[in-house]
Amino acid sequence: MERLRLAFIGSAGIPNRYGGFESFLEHCAPVIASFGHQVIVTCDAQLYPEKVRSYRGVDRLFLHIPANGGWSILHDLIAFFSVYLKSTHIVVLGVSGGLWFPLFRLLCNLAGKRLLVNIDGVEWRRSKFGPGKRRLLRLLDYLAQKFSHHIIYDSEVLRGFLLKGVQNKASCIAYPGDHVQRIPGIEKKIGTALTICRIEPENNLELLIEGALGSSLETYTIVGNWENSKYSIDLRARYSNEQRLNLLNPIYDPHALSQLRESCSFYIHGHSVGGTNPSLVEMLFYDCTLVCYDVLFNRKTAGDCASYFNSAGSLAVVLKNPGKVDAVMRRSFREKYTSILISSQYINVAKLV
Predict the structure, then answer these.
(1) How many CA atoms lie within 13 A of 329 on its CB side?
(2) What does the alpha-carbon distance between residue 180 and residue 23 come to, in Å, rounded to a whole number?
(3) Rounded CA gap, 161 and 184, in Å?
């Protein structure tokens, strides 16, 4: 068997302390390693005070430069050189390091290595960024696609955002959801809803809250980074007196998250951009009613396993008159989002590049 030496850079690290890429790595990197391949994941050192080098068979390298925000461009450069001599394939998660991709490609070509990029969810379209930053992100996206040996995108909808002429070096690989913890015996709390997301404008939090308050829900719990930005702080303050709202800071403990997910009647997903949003994929493995903002990304991920809305009013209507959960269809969708399948797809792509 050909033994790969795969390095994943560009994320905050494992175990998950941030979001989608980190969730993917936490659950797929160990599976890839279990197939006999060497796997390295770079980590944002400030998030991991314990600094244990090995995580479930995966080597962790700790970098003392933040992985997110403006520092991410420099982080990706340092991460690349930290894994360059240790790997045969370097997978860059996100396009923040796009500025360096011409250099990365040259160095990989000289050493017979391969450079892959997961382009994430069209970052340059996110409304949280101003016009200047969106133009920069679009340039970084262009450079990452142009100079990588292979492109990975996580939803077929994102294929429309690939550059002309790169489709022959691109593969669609989603995120896993079968790692979620199930807790037998927890009863659904009638009239309760849950959302787990980053508190950002493109996740439509105001719309979700207004729709929930206009429905007959007894309790709506939102778990997110409420202390992360002026937007999130102001939004929490505005609704702090609403007795039906439960606005919680991020929860990473699997058991605590599972208790919330098992017990809610509805899961409300407000993402309007991105690809296969991991939080929605994970909820497909529970049995509550899924209610999603009506965009192609969400319809491609959940299909007829969810109901859809496009305004606070239509959300309130859906919550009052939900459709039935189709258990057979839900099971068929779950088969698309397993860690074994997705890990195998990454391995196969790496072998073919």
Answers:
(1) 11
(2) 11
(3) 41
Q: What is the dihedral of CA 24, 30, 35, 40, to 10 degrees?
A: 90
d(CA 166, CA 153): 12
- CA Rg value for the chain: 20
Looking up tokens 């980190």 gives 22
Contact 220, 246 (CB under 8 A): yes
Token pair, residue 38, equals 């060497």
* CA-closest candidate to residue 63, choices 22, 89, 54, 76: 76
Q: What's the confidence (pLDDT) of residue 273?
A: 82
Sequential DSSP letters for 288-353: SEEEEESSHHHHHHHGGGEEEESSHHHHHHHHHSPPPP-HHHHHHHHTTS-HHHHHHHHHHHHHH-
Please choose, from the candidates 20, 9, 87, 89, the residue with its C-alpha nearest in 3D space to the C-alpha of residue 43.
9
Per-residue pLDDT reduced to its tens digit, 305-340: 999 999 999 999 999 988 777 778 888 999 999 999
The one-letter code for the residue type at 336 is K
Q: Are 97 and 144 in contact (CB under 8 A)?
A: yes
Q: Place 1 in a pLDDT band, splitting at 50, 70 and 90.
A: low
Q: Which helix (H) or strand (E) holds 114?
A: strand 114-118
The DSSP bridge partners found for residue 38 are: 5
Q: How far apart are CA 145 and CA 102, in angstroms?
A: 10
Close Cβ partners of 172 (under 8 Å, ≥ 6 residues apart): 152, 153, 154, 155, 156, 158, 159
Give the integer Cα–Cα distance in Å for 209 and 206: 5
